[in-house]
Every structure is written in C-alpha cells, then in structure tokens.
Amino acid sequence: FKYSSYNLPPGSLGFPFIGQSISLLRALRSNTDYQWYQGRIKKYGPVSKMWLFGSPAVMMAGPAANHFIFSNKDLLFTGTRSVNLLTGRNILMLSGEELKQVRSALQNFLSPEMVIKYVSKMDREVRRHVKLNWVGHKTVTVLPLAKRLMFDIICSVIFGQEAGSVREALATDFQTLVKAALSIPLKVPFTRFSKGFNASKRIRKVLRGIARERETLLQQGHGASADDFFTYMLASRAEGAHLLTVEDIVDNAIFLLIAGYETSSVLITFMLWHLDKEPEVLGKITEEQDEIARNKGPDDALTWDDVSRMKYTWKVAMETLRTIPPIFGSFRTATKDIEYQGYHIPKGWLVFTAQPVTHLDANIFAEPSKFDPARFENNSSIPPYCFVPFGGGPRMCPGNEFARTETLVTMHYLVMQFKWKMCCKDEGYKKDPSPMPLLGLPIELQPRCLPENAHA
Ligand code: HEM
C-alpha cells in the first residue's frame, strides 16, 4: 500500500523479515545457489523483489546490474547488524568525507607499491608454515591450514615486528569473531553472537594497546622505521591525510584482518581442489614454478619480479575465482528512492547482485562448467562487469593485489615441494556463505623430487 504509486519489481516479498532468506541460505549450503538465481530469473526476469536478511530486497542479475550496483552513488555498503556490532566503525559503515579518507588510506596501504615491500614477509611466513605444518605430514587438511597461513600473513603486515606474539594471542578470538558475523545478534550468554562479541572486546583491547604504544613512539620520534598498519595510519594522520581517531584505526585494522584472510584462504583451498582433478593444468603450473625456482639459490626469497612471472598460475587462480568465487554477491542499501530499468527501488531497500549469474553464463564464458584457465589468455576478450570476484567500481576490493601476491607465493612453495591427492575423491563443497569443501579438503601429501638447483 505504502508503495502504491511505485512500479516495484516483480516477485513476492513472502513473510516479512524471513522471506527468501532461509531458501537462499539453504541453496548456498547445498551448492544449488546458481539454480536458485536462475529459477528466479526465469520466473520474474533479471530484476525481482523479495525479503532478505531482514529487509525488503531487490535481486538484479547480469553485467548491467553489476555496473549499476558498483557505481551508483545512491547505493551504500551495509553490514548486517551483527557485523556492525562486532567490527565497529570500519570502512563498510562509513560514507561521505570519512569514507573517502579511509578508503584512500587503505588503498594506499594495499597498493602495488606497498605490496612489493610485503613480498619478503609473505615468503617468510609461507616457508615457516610449510616447514611447520606440511613437511613430514602424510595427510593434511587444507582449509584450516590455509586460513591460519593467510591470517599470519595479514598479521605480519598489520602488526609488523610484533606480529608473532599478537597473532598467537588473537587467532582463536578472530575465528570466534568471524563465526559470529552471520549469527543473530542476541547478547544471550553462550550464543555464537555473545561469544563473538566477547572475542571482539578482547581483540579491541589488545589492538588499542598496540595503537597507543605506536602513537607514543611516533610522538617521541621513534616510529620512522616501523612498517605496521598502526604506524602507517597514525603517520598519515599527522600528515593531514585523514582525521581517524585511534578507535577508528583499531576498527579498520580488525576489518582488514578479517577481510584479509577469509577470502584468500578459500581461493588457495579451491586451487588445490581443482588441481587435483586437472593434471594437465597442474603440469603447466609446475613447469612455470620450476622455471622460476631454477634461477634462484636454495635460500633466496621470492621477489616481486618472480611473482610477476607467475602468469599462468594466476590464470588458474582467476579460473578458480570464476567458478567458485569466495564472496557470492555484492549488497548495498538504497539511500533514497532510485530507479533501475523502469522499476522503482524505495529508500532503505537492499539491492544485491550474485557473481555466479555472470561467471557461469554460457553467453559470456563458453562451456562455463569446464575448468579452463586458457579463457583468461586474453583478458580483453572478457566484457566489462562479467568477471567480478573482487567487485568493481569505487568500492572494488583494494586487497586484490595483496591477495594475488600471497596466493602466488603460497602456490609456488606448495607446487615445488609436494604432490597431493584428495583423500576423498568426490568431496563436494557448500557455501556457508563462503565456499568450503565438506571435509575441509584432507589431502595425502608426498614430497616432490625437486628439479636440479631449485630452491624450496
Ligand atoms: C581472493 C581474495 C579476495 C577476494 C575474492 C575479495 C573480494 C572482495 C569483494 C567482492 C569485496 C566487496 C566488493 C563489493 O561489494 O563491491 C571486497 C571488499 C574489500 N576487500 Fe577484498 N577480497 C579478497 C582479499 C582481500 C584482502 C587480502 C584484503 C586486505 C588485505 C581485502 C580487503 C578488502 C577491503 C578493505 C574491502 C572493502 C572495500 C570498501 O569498503 O571500499 N580483500 N573484497
């Protein structure tokens, strides 16, 4: 009734607050989400309305919808209530001048010029992990190991020299926090949410302490050589680049730590999952990595130049991101009434687009279910807004170069040192909502005979 003068998109809103949430979450869990989106598109067309996650929502599909969502200035990022309560005032919740300042600071901190400096830290962490958790083991379970590795890498960049002690203290709390992010925000003891909330308080206390310490060091003129996120943000504040308080810097550090390890660990896990089924692709990656190793001494760390030569390995990563994107969709909220393809979208409604709709469209990617890294041979043949694992437009993932580099460094050492076989050949996966192999991907490991002169 409220919208009687509006031309709302087709589709039923269903039960208020619940609507289609359970049905979408169920489809994600059973890995039939693509069929779920297609079912709606067939029934209502590429734009349709529903209730989702407590809000009236509009699902849009296709490259034009991706473009619209990524670039419309009246659509804002929104976290769920749980995410907002757990992670505080981070980049996802900001708008206007504050967003501009934070976005620019994070983008600079993760820019290619900075990532070049992080390669040696990544190399050190990957070698340490491989030695500790992989070498000498007959079987390992990939997902938890990849998560811990990616967490330690992002910690080494956020905390700098003190990363070791901080990450030991916080790793479990971060896992609890991430698990709570999609829970119902009930502060009742022993619920997922209240455990996450307590974890977030502990994390915030430790990070606040570190930030204050770095602030004092900077004021005393001792911070110049520090290379951690806190010093970087405090120094850029002193130069007038932003006005963030210590509390804001802590909130953004928490968000970076989460954003920085969940997604890339999924990518690494599914690269190994695909490679187990694709011996030819594995052969080509191995050739590329052997060639890089051949030109290095046994203890030489990988360099930016080495990473830049891993072109085929990155194509395999892109094909993995196309087939199993770590983030299934982009969500925004309309800050005022807007129009899309003749339909009205009222202020306050959620708008979302799902990546698989374009990633698995046969008109864009021929034989979409085939795993074929060669389709990325010529990137310009992929039309704009069709391959969007990192989103697009002004809010595109600023960590994409960081993710590319840590993924390639990790794949180098895994491919060089091991052959692997999935313990359960037909292990499938679910999305909860990030994709995860049903058993976490247990694999049998065998050390690989290295080519002559190769480093490891
Ligand atoms: C394979 C790995 C990754 C994937 C697939 C990925 C994907 C994404 C996507 C889809 C978005 C949201 C885009 C949107 O809705 O428009 C995003 C945002 C973001 N990502 Fe990533 N990401 C990855 C790794 C990383 C890493 C390693 C970092 C940090 C070190 C990072 C930091 C961020 C941040 C800060 C945002 C929010 C940007 C903003 O609000 O403007 N991501 N990412």
Topology (SSEs and partners):
Blueprint: H1 21-29, H2 33-44, E1 47-52, E2 55-60, H3 63-71, E3 75-77, H4 81-87, H5 96-109, H6 112-134, E4 139-141, H7 142-159, H8 163-180, H9 192-219, H10 229-238, H11 246-277, H12 279-294, H13 304-308, H14 311-323, E5 329-334, E6 338-340, E7 343-345, E8 350-354, H15 355-359, H16 400-417, E9 418-422, E10 429-431, E11 435-437, E12 442-447
Parallel strand pairs: 2-8
Antiparallel strand pairs: 1-2, 3-5, 4-12, 5-8, 6-7, 9-12, 10-11
Helix pairs in contact: 1-2, 4-9, 6-7, 6-16, 7-8, 7-11, 8-9, 9-10, 9-11, 10-11, 11-14, 11-16, 12-14
Features:
456 residues; alpha+beta; five-stranded mixed sheet; three-stranded antiparallel sheet; 12 strands; 11% strand; binds protoporphyrin IX containing FE
The end-to-end span amounts to: 67 Å
Discrete helix count? 16
What share of the residues does DSSP label as strand, in percent?
5-15%
By secondary-structure content and strand pairing, the structural class works out as: alpha+beta
How much is the radius of gyration in Å?
23 Å
Largest sheet: 5 strands, mixed
Low-confidence stretches: none
Bound molecules: protoporphyrin IX containing FE
- What is the global morphology? globular
| Mean of pLDDT | 92
